[in-house]
Amino acid sequence: MSSSTSTHPDVMYDIAPRPKGGWLLTEKKIPGQPRLSATARGEHSKIIPFELHQPQHVPPQTLDAIGYHSLDDNEPVFARAMAGRKVHELLEAQTFSPQHMKGFGLWEKLVELQGIILKPGMADHMASLETTQNRKRVGTVYNLTWSVEPNGKDGSIRPGVIAKKKDPHVMRMVQLISEISFELVKKADGAWKEEHERQWVKEASLTCGGGENKSVTSIQVNLTAIKNLDETIDEDGGERSEDGESKSEEDVDADATMTGVDPDETNSDSNFEISEGYNITTPTSSATSTKTAEQIMEETLKDKSHVHKDSHDERRNFSCILFLNHVPQDHFVGRFNITNFRLTCTCIPFSGLVFPANNPHGGSGFAPYGPDLPLDSPLRFTPITPAGVGFPRLSDEAPYTRCLTIAYSRQDCMRARTKQLNPSIYGDAGLGAFITRKAQANWMIRHAIRDGLDIGVANPSVDDYLKKFSWIENGVKCYEDRKLVEDAFALKGTDNKEWELMLKATAYNSAHIKHDHPSRYESPKQRKARQAREVLGDDAYCTQITSKGTRCKAWLARNADGVKMCGHHYKIFMASKGGTQECNSGEAEEVVATARALKRLRDEGSEEYEEEHDEDDDVIHVSRPRRRRGSHYESSSSQRGRY
User: Fold this and answer.
1) DSSP letter string over 168-189?
2) Non-local CB neighbours of 415 within 8 Å, separated by 6+ positions
3) Which domain holds residue 541?
4) Residue 617 falls within a domain, yes or no?
5) Strand order through the sheet with 335-338
6) Nearest Cα residue to 381 out of 393, 396, 367
7) Predicted TM-score of the model (pTM)
8) Mean pLDDT over all residues of the chain?
């Protein structure tokens, strides 16, 4: 796609060659109208166009017509953003071909990684490591490292169920994925800067995988099996799980949402099917389905739930997807789409994509080719291997599988509070994610210096930390790099204004997705909060006017002199009357309880962090009390630990 100013109604950005290389996205401006809010941008990002759902390559003229840009040229795409008065050009996506992987020296690692994941019986082995509850909830999406409860309670960050098992195959997968992904992040133009290095040291980021990884905290492996219908159709035509019980339609959709593939994207006339797991089948032949392919596609477009954003990811860090698909010749490898910027790429085996996962995204087109598509059509995928290197030949027993790995940086792990860290992180169980003793000792040093933890020495020096966190490897006592300890001391308690500006810049083009089917995403607590809002209706909301001249959208209001207010405006009201001096102790306690309830329920009922940073009039902005320890953390003895 060349320089373009598409007139498609959902296109929000123009794209043109960037003078410094790559492509540059600039926001469309309509004379006399303000820029779109985050919610409005999200509304334009919900649907993946029909053309991208087709299981085949999309011609350039078709991409131009729908206002999409192909990332298959491996050129970086930047977007213009503002932070204060400063203009930033932020990287939004960059792909790396198999040829790049060979040039970076990553080809052998990718081949080894695919061989482990697609080894016969590996899918069943992975499932055996997971809990039954998690398998029902997320299907064949496996979390290999840290488990994080999204509530911030004590001990909420700990090794995941699979990581605790310390399975050697899984640990090798974690090591390979983290090494490859971090290398691609560093290779991506502008994805890794000096500020990222400093924050990794200063904030004691809880990364994984051993080695030199300083970005990846969490890893998911997504598997979607492809089976021949003759082997999998049940006599009653129903979809059955391993225990023989039929899964509900909502459960199937939820599983597909986590993998980025909609269950309705299969072609009803094909000889193959897609199932979310090797023991789950979904008949899709014309003999067992009364819906045409066109009807299924239409329902897919209406159901927009497979487009999502990962709001818990660190906004300033980048995610990395590795495509390791193993599909039959009559199957298209699929497509990955970033919908707010209208970017798309082919899921080429042994290629990778680096992008910020806070942008709305989703997969499409992973299905058999249409029956009318000629075998020699250029719209079919043809693999191109690096010069002198062929794709590895898997064993005949290797299952056909849509396979991709996702390595990302989670906010809670990048800036983990002391109380959130579970004690199991420090022990042998933590090695399932750290992989090596060196990586574990590396984090423990940074964490101990950040929080000033007691290591049994008064006013500890660099040598004291090195001695305290030494480890034995192959009978030899090992020590961490001295420079790491010196850097941790130098950065402790410092501020980084450039890091804060980067955060503001990432929020400039944010798109807030309001799901049409929230019940498929919400937890039981979120469901109760939503039901409470629906019952109370407009009476639950604050009646005060914000500084922007709009009505406050905060809910769970309270009465103050006959006027309904939220906790935030109640504090302002009390301050105008003289603050807490006119309140008795009971009233003060009630104010605190109301404010805490408001914060808790708001966090349960909406995307956290989105409320505080999105530039959106429709999003609730709430002032939250910030807890500090030194300049960034609490200094009370109750928060201190001891190694």
Assistant:
1) HHHHHHHHHHHHHHHHHHHHST
2) 203, 205
3) 522-608
4) no
5) 69-70, 343-346, 335-338, 361-364
6) 367
7) 0.73
8) 78
